Automatic annotation (TrEMBL):
Record carries keyword Nucleotide-binding: yes
Species lineage: Bacteria, Pseudomonadati, Pseudomonadota, Gammaproteobacteria, Oceanospirillales
Family designation: Belongs to the cation transport ATPase (P-type) (TC 3.A.3) family. Type IB subfamily.
Keyword Ligase recorded: no
Subcellular localization, as worded in the UniProt entry: Cell membrane
Domain of life: Bacteria
One Gene Ontology MF term: ATP hydrolysis activity
Section covered of the full-length record: 457 to 748 of 817
GO cellular component: plasma membrane
UniProtKB keywords: ATP-binding, Cell membrane, Copper, Copper transport, Ion transport, Magnesium, Membrane, Metal-binding, Nucleotide-binding, Repeat, Translocase, Transmembrane, Transmembrane helix, Transport
Protein name (Swiss-Prot/TrEMBL): P-type Cu(+) transporter
UniProt-listed GO biological process terms: copper ion export; copper ion homeostasis
Length: 292
C-alpha cells in the first residue's frame, strides 16, 4: 500500500471512530482470518448484576450477602461491583474487613467480624480444599442460562452459590453476523466458567470458545490460534488483555477500557460498539484493494 492510500484509509476509519495507531495495521487487519474477543467488557457490557444466591446448610441469605459484600467492597472486579450494588439496593451496610487478599483469576478473601470469608470461582474453592459438588445441579442450570456461578465459603465451610449475569451489548449480535459475512472465524477468550462461556457463545453463534483462562493465559490462547494457522486480531478492554493485544497480529482495544489495553493495541475503537470491528475490516479490504 502506498503511504497516501494508508493515510486516506486511516482518515476514513477515524471518521467512523476507529483509530489506527499504526498505518501498517490496516494491512494486517485486511489479512486477519480469526477475530478473537475477550468476553467481559468486550462482548458483554462488563456490568454484571447479581441474579441468584442459594445458601447451604443453616446459613441465611442475608448473612451470606452481608459477609460477601463486605469482602467484595475491597475488590475492583466487575463481579465485586455487582455484589456490592445488590446490598446497596437492599439498604445493607457493608462491614469493615481485615486481611483482604485477591487471588487473580480465582477469587477474594478477608476476615469480617472475625469470620473468614472466601468468594470466587469453583477452582478457588477446590484450591481451598472445598467440594462444590452439592451445588452441581444449580451450577449447571445457572451456567446454561449464561450466568456465572461463584461460591462463598464462611469459616472454611461452603456457604452459598451465587450467580451474576453480564448483559450482552446491543451491538454484539450484529457485529458477529457481519464478521461471519466477511468470512472470518470468531473466537471468545475468557476467564469465566466453561459452561457459561459456551452458553453465551451458542447464543451468539461464536465458532470457538477458550474458557477458564487465567489472567496471564490469554496470550497463550492467542498463540494457539496463531499456531493453528490463523492471522489473529484480538479485541479486548482490560488490564489482563494487554499481553494478548500485543501478541495478536492486530490488537484492537476498546477506548472506554483501560489505558494499558489501548497502549498495547494498534487499533483503538472510540466506542464500545463492536460493529466497528467488521466495519474497520471492510474498510481495510477496500483500501488495500484500491491501490493494487
Ligand atoms: P474475567 O475477566 O473473564 O472475569 P478473571 O480472571 O478476572 O476473568 O476472573 C476469573 C474468575 O475468577 C471469575 O469469573 C470469578 O469466578 C473469579 N473471580 C475473580 N475475581 C473475583 C472476585 N472479586 N469475586 C468473586 N470471584 C472472582
Ligand atoms: Mg474484559
Amino acid at each position: 500500500a502506498t503511504p497516501t492510500s494508508i493515510m486516506v484509509g486511516t482518515g476514513k476509519a477515524a471518521k467512523m471512530g476507529v483509530l489506527f495507531r499504526k498505518g501498517e495495521a490496516l494491512q494486517s487487519l485486511r489479512d486477519a482470518t480469526v477475530i478473537a474477543l475477550d468476553k467481559t467488557g468486550t462482548l458483554t457490557k462488563g456490568r454484571p448484576e447479581l441474579t441468584d444466591l442459594v445458601v447451604a446448610g443453616d446459613f441465611t441469605e442475608a448473612e451470606v450477602l452481608q459477609l460477601v459484600a463486605s469482602v467484595e467492597r475491597q475488590s475492583e472486579h466487575p463481579i465485586a461491583e455487582a455484589i456490592v450494588n445488590a446490598t446497596k439496593a437492599r439498604g445493607m451496610e457493608p462491614d469493615t474487613v481485615q486481611h483482604f487478599e485477591a487471588d487473580p483469576g480465582y477469587g477474594v478473601a478477608a476476615l469480617v467480624n472475625d469470620r473468614r470469608v472466601e468468594v470466587g470461582a469453583d477452582r478457588y474453592m477446590r484450591k481451598l480444599g472445598l467440594d462444590v459438588e452439592v451445588f452441581a445441579k444449580a451450577a449447571h442450570r445457572l451456567a446454561d442460562e449464561g450466568k456465572s456461578p461463584l461460591y462463598a465459603a464462611i469459616d472454611g465451610r461452603l456457604a452459598a452459590i451465587i450467580a451474576v449475569a453480564d448483559p450482552i451489548k446491543e451491538s454484539t449480535p450484529a457485529a458477529i453476523r457481519a464478521l461471519h459475512a466477511e468470512g472470518l472465524q470468531v473466537a471468545m477468550i475468557t476467564g469465566d466458567n466453561r459452561r457459561t462461556a459456551e452458553a453465551i457463545a451458542r447464543r451468539l453463534g461464536i465458532d470457538k470458545v477458550v474458557a477458564e483462562v487465567l489472567p496471564d493465559g490469554k496470550v497463550d490462547a492467542v498463540k494457539r490460534l496463531q499456531a493453528e494457522g490463523g492471522v489473529v486480531a484480538f479485541v479486548g478492554d482490560g488490564i489482563n488483555d494487554a499481553p494478548a493485544l500485543a501478541q495478536a497480529d492486530v490488537g484492537i482495544a476498546i477506548g472506554t477500557g483501560t489505558d494499558i489495553a489501548m497502549e498495547s493495541a494498534e487499533v483503538v475503537l472510540m466506542s464500545g460498539d463492536l460493529r466497528n470491528v467488521p466495519n474497520a475490516i471492510a474498510l481495510s479490504r477496500a483500501t488495500i484493494r484500491n491501490i493494487k
